[in-house]
Amino acid sequence: MDINQLLQGLDCPCGRPHTCPIQYVYIEPNAAARLGEICGHRDRVLLVADENTYAAAGRQVAEALQGKSVRQVLFPGAPLLIPNEDAIDTVTAALGDAELIVGVGSGVIQDLCKYVSHQSHVPYVIVATAPSMDGYASSGAAMITGGMKVTYPVGLPTAILADPAVLAQAPLEMLKAGYGDIIGKYSSLNDWKLSHLVNGEYFCQQIYDLTFEQVQNTIRLADGILKRDEAAMAALMEALVVVGILLSFVGNSRPASGSEHHLSHFFEITGIINGRDYFPHGIDVAYSTIITAQLRERLLQAEFPARLYRPDPARYRTDMERIYKQVAPGCMALQEEMGRYQSSDAAPYLDHESAIRSVLAEMPSADEIVRLLGLVELDPAEFYAFYGDELLADAIHYAKDLKDRYTVLWMYYDFFGTV
Questions:
Q1: Which string of b and e fits 173-182 if b means at least 16 CB within 10 Å?
Q2: How many CB atoms lie under 10 A from the CB of residue 235?
Q3: Which of 193, 240, 357, 407 could anchor a disulfide with 134, C-beta 3.0 to 4.6 Å?
Q4: What is the DSSP string of 318-340?
Q5: Element holding 149 (H helix, E strand)
């Protein structure tokens, strides 16, 4: 797919305008050299990186910015940077009179730059150091504020720059994470169709098809990813950027973030709360896609209930406080606002039973997802052993409470509760 053509927008039968304000995407050798032309008349630049990402591409960026007035925010390479209030304050305090923010990194650096750019109305450019996630071109910044994982609507970068040679040197785990993030679209796209049926949510077939196309393209890259082949790096990065552009067309992350992402966010948030390690985002997404496939398989075997399961309020509160601790009040307030627990009416399912079964059956089987992940040597046994049965059960039942978005996690809970 020609990214620059896609940036011009799509004419679509869905009736919604599909436009994207990103001006440049360069996935090419020495892409950072493009910074001079992108900066143009802007002479004051804030460079944001951590020690690892600066080592990967920061020097090339600094060289490309020679002649500019450049300030730097350099976060430690360890421990893992968290995009929370402290990190936001650090970048904001360094901003001063900068006319452009240049982020050097991947997920967290990208989200920090997005967020601060939006708050300060200073444009930003991202120089990618790993093809690890699809957020480079999306209009959401995944931040952890108030202890909760919150995706804020933000602006898009002026430019995305990526050198395949730099991408190829990223930790292998991050390369697998990018592959896993794309495989997760099987689940998120299925959730989108499901919500369209159950809730009448907006759905665009063209965006669905183009996103699905990126999944098919990425599967063919598995061997090249393991070999760190630069052509495979470029193709994986292109798939991730294209998905992000498609999200910007929709105006939110719905096509690319569903139940598998909610499970991933659950492991991250509860890990932060309890000081427990968790896998990189894309790898958690990949493994969680196996779980969501298993849930769909069980739902396909189930009779549709006359009434939906609803928890005892006291038990629900106890479980939420046990799992989410200080974050529990915010999660419960969000769900009270959404109102899903207030109704046990099964009509939205019963009225569309045949169509819902058809949509659930479109999802590849859990065994097929395991096979696809095995192509990049991701073994779900490590996932199950790492998190354990109790945490996985809590994730299936309560990851949905972190977000306002309907997914198959809600359908599963509506049918089976905590059984």
A1: ebbbbbbbbb
A2: 20
A3: 240
A4: HHHHHHHGGGHHHHHHHHHHHTG
A5: strand 148-153
Run of H or E residues at 106: none
- Is the whole-model pTM more than 0.85? yes
Sign of the four-CA dihedral 334, 291, 254, 280: positive
Look at 39-43, 190-194, 353-357 and tell me which has the smallest mean pLDDT.
39-43
Q: Do the beta carbons of residue 175 and residue 137 sit within 8 Å? A: no
Provide the token pair at 6.
């896609």
Mean pLDDT of 382-409: 97
Q: Give the pair of three-digit tokens for residue 234.
A: 């470029």
The secondary structure of the chain in percent helix, strand, coil, rounded to multiples of 5, reads 60, 10, 30
Cβ–Cβ < 8 Å for 331, 402: yes
Q: Angle at Cα 305 formed by Cα 300 and Cα 307, nearest 5°?
A: 145
* Domains of the chain, earliest start first: 3-175 (3.40.50.1970), 180-416 (1.20.1090.10)
Interatomic CA distance for residues 43 and 349, integer angstroms? 57
Q: pLDDT tens, 77-106?
A: 988 899 999 999 999 999 999 999 999 999
pLDDT of 388 higher than 90: yes
Tell me the residue ranges of DSSP E strands in 230-313.
none
Give the single-character DSSP code of 27.
E
Give the whole-angstrom CA distance, residue 30 versus residue 166: 9
